[in-house]
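2024-03-11 09:14:02 INFO worker-7 job=invfold-0412 stage=load source=structure_tokens
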């Protein structure tokens, strides 16, 4: 989620079947671990994934590999259906 864009704590909580305080506790643990940054936005807190350029490059490559695997699997299924 946070790889796509920074999000308010309420937006994050709404995406999970957990109470807002539970999600906030998890977000605070991620913040303490140095994995996310938090900044106040009015009465809410906006969370941003803390990611280095190298980590971002690895993430992009992993997404590319995953997309390629899915395309190959789909291609294999397509080949089997045509026989």
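2024-03-11 09:14:09 INFO worker-7 stage=emit residues=83
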């Amino acid at each position: 989620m946070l790889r796509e864009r920074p999000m308010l704590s309420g937006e994050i909580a709404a995406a999970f079947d957990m109470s807002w305080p539970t999600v906030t506790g998890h977000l605070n643990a991620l913040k303490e671990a140095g994995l996310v940054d938090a900044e106040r936005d009015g009465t809410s807190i906006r969370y941003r994934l803390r990611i280095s350029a190298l980590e971002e490059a690895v993430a992009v490559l992993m997404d590319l590999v995953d997309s390629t695997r899915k395309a190959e699997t789909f291609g294999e299924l397509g080949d089997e259906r045509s026989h």
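2024-03-11 09:14:09 INFO worker-7 stage=report msg="Residues 1-50 form a domain with the Arc Repressor Mutant, subunit A fold (CATH 1.10.10.10)."
2024-03-11 09:14:10 INFO worker-7 job finished
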